[in-house]
Amino acid sequence: MINYYGNEITWIPELKKSNKPLYILITESLEKDIENGKLKSGFKLPPQRIIANYLGISHSTVTRAYTLCEEKGLIKGVIDKGTFVSSNADNILITSGSQNALSVILASLFTKGDRIVVDELTYTGLKSLAKLLGIILIPVKGDNSGIDIEELKNTCKRERVKGNYLIPDCHNPTTITMPMD
User: What is the pTM (predicted TM-score) of this model?
Assistant: First the structure.
């Protein structure tokens, strides 16, 4: 963190010598810092004017970089709050319901013949989807706390498991709630 005339600067773009325009260099620096985990989702970026003054460049250059980053989905400006690093859109799936989400997940991550470990009594919607897609469900016994961890380990060693489907809270149809440990 840099203290600049009473302003705390939490991030400064790393500008390397290049023939590229400054706003592109700022955009690339921001993108790189997000990709390598230096800037996490929800991180509040310094105001554009502070960055511009610190770097000795035009405010409009930083504004142009922030605008480009927002168009790319990297950041989001919130009026009277600031500019924040967006959540990683690659990890978000928007569907019209949980059954639809399960369909997309199973169809995109698994192929016919893949094996998924499930609770002994598992969601019937998952069973139907797995059957439709040719995915093999491997049931693992459980107790009042949910799936038996030792049995799960043994099953994973024995079978060529590609996935694991657990319902950690309010298991349907048994209504068992899995404890945190």
Answer: 0.51
